[in-house]
Amino acid sequence: MLSLSELWFLLIAVLFVGFFFLEGFDFGVGMSTAIIGKTDRERRTLINSIGPFWDGNEVWLITAGGAMFAAFPHWYATLFSGFYLPLVVVLLALIGRGVAFEFRSKMRQGRWRKTWDIIIVVSSALLPFLFGVVFATLMKGLPIDAQMQLRPGFLDIVNPYTVVGGLSVTLLCLVHGLLFASLRTVGDLRERALNTAKKLMLPLAAILAVYAVMTYFMTDVFAVRGWALWIMVVLGAASLGLATYFVRQKREAWAFGMTGAVIAIAFASVFIGLFPRVMVSSMGSAFDLTVYNASSGAYSLKVMTIVACTLLPFVLGYQIWSYYIFRKRLNDQHHLEY
Amino acid sequence: MDPIMLSRIQYALTTIFHFFFVPLSIGLVLLVAIMETLYVVKGKEVYKTMAKFWGKLFLINFAVGVVTGILQEFQFGMNWSEYSRFVGDVFGAPLAVEALLAFFMESTFIGLWIFGWDRLSKKVHLACIWLVFVGTFLSALWILAANSFMQHPVGFEINNGRAEMNDFFALITNGQLLVEFPHTIFGALMTGAFVVTGISAFKLMKKQDVEIFRKSFNIAILIGLVSSLGVAFSGHFQAQYLVETQPMKMAASEGTWTTTEDPAPWTVVAAIDPDKQENSGEIKIPGLLSYLSYSKFSGSVKGMKELQAEYEQTYGPGDYIPPVRTTFWSFRIMIAAGGLMILLALYGTFLAMRRKLEGAGKWFMRLMVFAISLPFIANTSGWIMTEVGRQPWTVFGYMTTAAGVSPNVSAGQILFSTIAFTAAYTVLGIVMVYLFVREIKAGPYAVEKPEEHDESADPFGVDGGYSVVTK
To answer: For helices A84-103 and B45-79, what crossing angle results, to 10°?
Structure first.
């Protein structure tokens, strides 16, 4: 039977997986405006394809943060204070990206638009990269002391393993986003999105493979969770293979589903590999933060479990409904809101 | 500088900035929802135009409110990690519920509202904007539940050096929340109302789109009147609650050093000397402080010196007197701004009811434009009084602000982030005001021109030919 703190670890994992699955594609679409959006009208169409969704997608991150704060205060405190400078950049990027979507079309001058477009592209690439780096360090381990304080040096955060992790997530989001764009547009734009995705499948497979191998040698997750992670690797590779197949077949809905599966499997693996730890200490396993020593009291977890179980069905319901409302492809004849 | 001071400065700056946008969002979305309701009920296009025009301003404002809100959530872990460890159990729960219950709702239905004009039926589309309003309302409720816990901690016990929740119901029926929430919500509705009446007054003076702005003025002034009166009454209850639960804050905001005579007079103005712990040049109204504190013209109010002695008995040695001048003056600025708004709303409503708006003197219309600043002044000074008046406590009676700061973050890091956020916020503030002015100038009938220059002018240009045309 799951204890409540284990259940909340699972819920937070689900929130992060959901966040990367959903915001993953709008990060990708954001990046793709620079790659396949040749005219202003095309960039606008691309942004419109995520227009109704990106804000709701981002709430998955905010909720994950709130859930961490409430269910695992020590995890929240150690992680957020320990990753101070990367998080400052994350926040600046989130702020810039959020307002850029709203501000870019308020004026027609070339420089105004170009500035906000650049902010969209840069922040959409920077955010998955930084998240990738942070999640990689979680698996690799960080100098957490007996007081649960984290004082990382530069090399604890930036090293070959974490950089490859960051690049993997970025590229994965880009391909995922391109497939989303191809799913929601017609004509040239759709073709270009599909073709670009097709070209990126091989580099993506290569970097993910490198990352998996590095994870095997540079972290203890395979040692701790042996067969479970091997299953994830096999499933991930299969999903990526299917994604490539569907891209070639121009069946973008299936391809998009498969890159989504890759994202879900990748991040699920992180949480499986960590469990029951939430943060690995490189100063000795006695200093690891675990779901048991970092969690809130039983009463608090119980209340939150009731609240979450009551509310989640509604949240999922209206989010799915909004995707259903905006299911049609966008074409030149559509009035674009941005 | 030391990390505590820097973290305080950063918290104050980011919170004040965030709180420019939040109340305006809540207030504006209610007005937009009312306008769209009139459109659906009466079927007149003019109401749709109104909803769309004010909706545009709402969206610009909402975006800034949302992005600055994310920083607020992260900041607890980044700058105040010891605080987060100590109270995460209790304080984190309302934040998590806020995200689950309110943020998802706001963000999903705002998306449906913006992009759904021609995809949803009129009624479903209308329901979307009302759900956005409900979302902002619930968001305020939960964030204030969290704040109320800091002002008046309830529903928890101390275990292993941490506050652990033991009564969720107590947390959401916290007496502090019951007085703080109505006061803040009325303040928010008042903010939306005064921004809309102010902008409408400006347009009416210029005789532009008179029908739209007369109607907007009329709807908003009514909300302005109800909410400004609501603010005053709920503020009165909040002050009374304060006397019971945080007497030091009340004494500081009154500049009362020694326990007053009975009945207690209200000090209108005074020169305060915190070092000598005395005031000079006071102007007092007899008996009024007793009335504010207890709803009767008798009873004395405790002074800071006596309270300091009492707190030292309870909590050990230390300085428990908050920055008195800041608390004292922010309280007065809030009341002055609030009082002025009540008067303006009364006169404005009188004009609107008599249908004499267009004949109104230019002085009144100009005053209404100036009054756009009043709710922001009142909201900000209200929060400064509430938060500065609580010092040195972050969780009243349990944890000082100084004890809550992150021990592993250096002053240099906080200085860097403070500069970065301040710079980003400055740019945001300027852009946002600029866009507001631009939208207002363009007016409700500004139609977006089709982008005919897109591909034809120079298909090889970086901007798809666009920059060629504008140069």
So the answer is: 170
Structure tokens at B58: 């709402």
List phi, psi (to 5°) of B394: -100, -45
Please judge whether A55 and B111 are an interchain contact, meaning their C-beta atoms are less than 8 angstroms apart: yes
CA B289 to each of CA B250, B295, B379: distance values in angstroms, whole numbers, following the listed order: 10, 9, 22
Min distance A52 CA to chain B CA atoms (Å): 4
Q: Which helix (H) or strand (E) holds B210?
A: helix B210-245
Tell whether B450 is within 8 A of chain A (Cβ).
no
Q: Do A299 and B428 touch (CB under 8 A)?
A: no
pLDDT at B450: 46
A322 vs B: CB within 8 A: yes
Distances (CA, A) of B111 to A56, A262, A338, B121: 8, 27, 12, 15
Residue-wise pLDDT tens digits, B319-335: 999 999 999 999 999 99
Contacts of A59 in chain B (CB under 8 A): 99, 103-104, 107
Sign of CA dihedral B254, B257, B259, B260: negative
Largest CA distance in chain B: 83
Beta-carbon-side half-sphere exposure of residue A205 (alpha carbons within 13 Å): 15
pLDDT tens per residue across span A17-70: 999 999 999 999 999 999 998 888 888 889 988 988 888 899 999 999 999 999
By C-alpha distance, the chain A residue nearest B439 is A106
Q: Which residues contact A142 (CB under 8 A, 6 or more apart)?
A: A82, A150, A152, A156, A279, A280, A281, A282
ipTM of this model? 0.88
Per-residue pLDDT reduced to its tens digit, B7-21 = 999 999 999 999 999
Inter-chain residue contact A315 with B60, CB threshold 8 Å? no
CA distance A228 to chain B (A): 31
pLDDT, position B467: 36
Residue from A334, A323, A327, A45 nearest A188 by CA: A45
**How far is A107 from A104, CA to CA, in rounded Å?**
7
Q: How would you write B387-440 as a 3-class SS string?
A: HHCCCCEEECCCEECHHHCCCCCCHHHHHHHHHHHHHHHHHHHHHHHHHHHHHH
Say what the pTM is: 0.89
Give the burial string for A310-325 (b: 16+ CB within 10 Å, else e).
eeeeebeebbeebeeb
pLDDT tens-digit profile of B81-129?
Answer: 999 999 999 999 999 999 999 999 999 999 999 988 888 899 999 999 9
Contact B429/A at CB under 8 A:
no
How far apart CA B246 and CA B390 sit, in angstroms, is 8
Nearest to B159 among A41, A62, A297 (CB): A297
Question: Is the model's pLDDT at B183 over the cut of 80?
Answer: yes
What are the angstrom distances between the C-alpha of B226 and each of B68, B216, B348? 29, 16, 12
The helix (run of H) or strand (run of E) holding residue A2 is none
**Alpha carbon distance A44, B87 (integer Å):** 44
How distant is the Cα of A127 from the closest Cα of chain B, in angstroms? 14
Q: Cβ(B174)–Cβ(B148) under 8 Å? A: yes
